[in-house]
């Protein structure tokens, strides 16, 4: 132990050590500060009841209705949901959250929204914590310098019953992104372009720490966008060392500490960044200046390229496995090799999701929307009810409405198509979400991932568009 | 549902050409897969579906992290073997319908069609849980005597987290 404490520690080492309850043959039992749940967690509650156990720390369980909530005609709340299966999911979640006295943000709550938008904006997500979320994109919260893991239903049950989690210590990959991003290049382009380079397995077994001057210069919203998609690079989670940007964001939020406790917390948070000389297992470097607006053309987030590129030709790919993957993706996407990406017409645009539905994302989309009119159906779905109110206070909703964009209530919506918002067969959608898997937005639907500004540009031109050119 | 869009046509009928629909493979208990198997899903239903189908073990060069853990927690044994070995196993299985391989968790070896053994390793704690059918919650409750003082000290140190709860 004494020797250990002299060795320079990484950010992950520090958080890990402070949460380790015990170790058995390399598996560590970690104390969990918060468990995050959405409607999908029903099996965990069923199993907990079947085991005759209670929720161990209900006030450390945050439950948000987001996946199944309607994002239109919501005046009647859950009762107004017509699809009985969807309504059943919401009712069951409501019952579980209330029975177990969880911290619950239901459909009618003024703070309702996507879990990964709500927890940060309430100040629940803080540096140094361990958060376990029964959702893959729990990685988002790493933007605050905490360890936030997506877990499955068995682990969710375990955390409900014990407020702890068994994990092996992950490896650390540091990705340094240095320099300044070009105008119109966003955090979404950074992460899409990074995944295109390292692949969907690039971060496997690792926590990715995003570092470098480009990351230091990012707002919390932007950091959340890159951490959100770290899971798309195969990583266990993403993390950014907390700094003054983090602290300024947290200051005054309802769950953030106040008064003397703020000073105490701040002093602790400042000790968290990695010590000088602390080693990581893998390192990558990326020059911010090399990143262009990026869009996915395939059925995996790594199948993406800069907007001035073309649809790849499988015949030019040497690795037979890759060649087959690309050919199958193009077949599904209905794309011909060699087509310029900017020649791809879209049927619909979705601006939303836990990747890109925070206030800054909406501002970026509105700045582009102000310059034209949507020529295809375009939905804007704010990440939370608070984001919606703020956008309305800033007049952003009117910019969208004047441009013919639809303005919705908060929820996951078309990101995952569980609430009934979904693409028609073969419909092509420019989407600010994080997954372009087959059928993700509806059976045989075709998804192109891109940034909010690029999505708004696609809305007003009806095809994938280089927002840099639109700006000139 | 397991590989739904691969196994079923739009009208819900089974596609005869998908491998798990062929009668000889309907009894399959082991999948030999390619890299990144199960990548990107935290939904445990992926594992439930495999288990319900009768899959007891999956052999692949690499797995999605969450999926790998979900397998362990649902008594499906995830086995990591290098890509060449996986390709060779698939070739052997395709070469003769009804050919069998075995996964021995006790000894941590996969025996191929020709009887050759390929060693793999699974974390000792996980192996013990799998072999004894011990669930995680019961395992953890064995540690309550360390957990409770830990939590008390934690709450004192980070008082701003628990105030008001
Ligand atoms: S917005 Fe999409 S990715 Fe995010 S939590 Fe909802 S369904 Fe998941």
Structure write-up:
With 472 residues, chain A is of the alpha/beta class. Helices cover 33% and strands 17% of the residues of chain A. Chain A contains 17 helices and 19 strands. Chain A has helices at residues 2-6, 11-19, 42-50, 84-99, 115-122, 153-162, 187-198, 213-216, 220-228, 244-250, 259-269, 320-333, 359-369, 385-394, 396-402, 452-461, 467-470, and strands at residues 20-24, 27-31, 34-37, 61-64, 103-105, 130-133, 147-150, 164-168, 171-178, 206-211, 237-239, 282-287, 294-296, 304-306, 348-351, 378-380, 406-407, 428-431, 446-449. In chain A, the strands form five sheets. Chain A has a five-stranded parallel sheet, with helices on both faces. A five-stranded parallel sheet of chain A has the order 17-16-15-18-19, covered by helices on one side. Chain A is globular and about 55 Å long. The mean pLDDT of chain A is 95. The two termini of chain B are 40 Å apart. Chain B is 41% helix and 12% strand. By secondary structure, chain B is an alpha/beta fold. At the A-B interface, strand 1, strand 2, helix 6, strand 8 and helix 11 of A face helix 3, helix 5, helix 6, helix 7 and helix 8 of B. Iron/sulfur cluster is lined by residues 66-67, 114, 116, 135, 137, 353-354, 412, 415-416, 433-434 of chain A.
